[in-house]
Write a structure and sequence with these properties.
about 525 residues, 26-stranded mixed sheet, 4 helices
Length: about 525
């Protein structure tokens, strides 16, 4: 008996790799093109015993693209041989790069290489720092509010919209360059330097280097992003892509095209568009003042505050506000009124609660402080997220020593039991000790012993003996969110990171931690 079985050949590595034409890469995604980009396209005849002939290598939609070929078609390809084409893409040409390089071999279908990208122009003008640079962050929050002031908040943007406003003084050649750039390419995407994060190079860098010595900490550098190198004038500018970020270096994806001396400026870059035509004030026949506002067109992420003090599931804003200027406070009530304009109006407060508001201002000295404030703004996300806000003002005064195991303390009578009624916003306290320790507790009961003393009962013991002289301040904790989806940072210089920022915080009622009654 003969065993006859049908078989089938199994593909091997050689079958997938040899006896075909390889073109690498088949897609050239150049990303943001802000300077001349050089790329190589390799064509390899992987046939082991067959010679081929390239009849044509045609470039379509290639305005602003220079193709350097290894020869003029028809080009012979011996078995197992290859050739390389050089593709150079410059900044001149349409804003959107959409080209195709097609290779045609005799007897084969066309093999296309798709070239895509976007041309951007470097904004090479520096701001007038006597007027500062205004940065604006704008989130978007959808809020549903119940009649008793409980809220449901939903963020509609994963990252804020970001914009910059600055005034530039230009004269001579730079004035004409700015005029022509805005006139000709004002509608394009710009490589906008983040001016507040600029720095001066501390050493010389030769032509063709890929590693830039700098301090990237607390600046808007990112892998895959862009950086701008600028000399003494707007005519000495180069934009490069970041491949890696070290502790004291930036590694570029491609070598620099010119030498950069000590004292040259280095900026992180974001792609942006002019929000409106710049406003020009002619100072002389050679000088002008130009005010411009840019809207960043890419997502700008930043980490939230790392390991903040927590209380009942929310971070505590422990940093004191800057009080060099007056801070406004107020109360907001959700009153309902009915007035027929004949009798007495009818007014009711269904929430029986006031949402307190207070301005919080930061004055930042140094990049670390500025980075921390930015992290707080990204933690709040406009009006979306809530934090505990101490007013950082004396609220209660301890009268007698409190044992570490006790839950009651006697304070000066300020009318807490009479007016506040342990409502949200006036029933959580922050006890700051002079040694730097801060304790957060909830008041569960308050009773007036006489006109001078009130006795408070806390939800937990303090854990240590506390004398009146040990206390720096006792203030109320108010669960709050931002009162606006917009936040502004006013930068004063690009050398040390000094800046100002201010927001208004509004008290909220959180159903998860507040005993909010159901509406009737």
């Amino acid at each position: 008996m003969i065993d006859r079985r049908a078989g089938a050949p199994q593909p091997m590595f050689g079958d997938d790799f040899f006896d075909r034409i390889h073109v690498e890469p088949q897609v050239l995604n150049l990303g943001n093109v802000s300077s001349v980009q050089q790329r190589a396209v390799r064509v390899w005849n992987a046939y082991r015993a067959r010679a081929l002939t390239l009849t044509d290598a045609a470039l379509s939609g290639g305005e602003g693209i220079v193709l350097t070929a290894p020869g003029v078609p028809p080009l012979p390809f011996a078995p197992m041989s290859g050739r390389t084409w050089q593709v150079a893409v410059g900044t001149d040409g349409p804003p959107v790069i959409a080209a195709t390089l097609a290779f045609r071999f005799d007897g084969f279908a066309e093999i296309p290489v798709v070239i895509t990208g976007q041309r951007i122009v470097a904004w090479a003008f520096v701001p007038d720092w006597s007027r500062g640079v205004l940065e604006r962050l704008e989130w978007k929050t959808d809020i549903l509010t119940s009649p008793i002031a409980a809220e449901q908040r939903r963020g509609l943007r994963s990252a804020p919209r970001r914009s910059f406003e600055a005034t530039m003084i230009v004269d001579g050649r730079e004035r004409v360059l700015l005029d022509l750039a805005v006139f000709g390419w004002g509608g394009r995407t710009w490589a906008l330097p983040i001016w507040p994060d600029g720095q001066w190079l501390a050493q010389d860098h030769a032509l063709g280097v890929r590693v830039i010595a700098c301090d990237p900490l607390h600046r808007d550098f990112r892998v895959g992003g862009l950086v701008q190198l600028r000399g003494r004038t707007a005519f000495e500018v180069e934009v490069a892509e970041v491949e890696a970020i070290g502790a004291a270096t930036l590694t570029l994806r491609h070598p620099t095209t010119r030498a950069w001396l000590r004292g040259s400026r280095l900026y992180p870059v974001r792609t942006a568009r002019l929000a409106e035509p710049p406003r020009v004030i002619r100072l002389t026949d050679q000088a002008a003042s130009v005010s411009a506002r840019f809207d960043v067109v890419e997502a700008c992420d930043w980490p939230g505050i790392a390991e903040p003090a927590m209380y009942r599931g929310h971070p505590v804003l422990e940093q004191r506000p800057d009080e060099s200027e007056r801070l406004n406070e107020g109360w907001q009530r959700a009153l309902l009124s009915l007035d027929n304009e004949f009798g007495r109006p009818w007014v009711v407060d269904p929430a029986d609660w006031a949402a307190t508001t207070q301005a919080h201002r930061w004055r930042m000295h140094g990049r670390a402080e500025r980075a921390a404030v930015r992290s707080w703004l990204y933690t709040l996300r406009g009006r979306q997220r809530a934090v505990w806000r101490p007013p950082h003002a004396d609220g209660l005064t301890l009268l007698t020593t409190v044992a570490g195991t006790a839950t009651a303390l006697d304070v000066t009578n300020v009318g807490l039991s009479r007016f506040a009624g342990l409502r949200p916003g006036r029933r959580d306290v922050r006890i700051e000790l002079r040694g730097g320790v801060a304790l957060h507790r909830r008041i569960t009961a308050a009773v007036a012993l006489d006109d001078d003393i009130e006795r408070l009962t806390l939800d937990a013991a303090l854990g240590l003996d506390v004398r009146p002289r040990d206390i720096r301040r006792i203030s109320f904790l108010v669960l709050s969110r931002g009162d606006s989806d917009e936040a502004e940072i006013e930068h004063h210089t690009d050398s040390d990171g000094s800046a100002d920022a201010a927001i208004v915080l509004r008290a909220v009622r959180d159903p998860d931690i507040d005993d909010i009654p159901a509406p009737t």
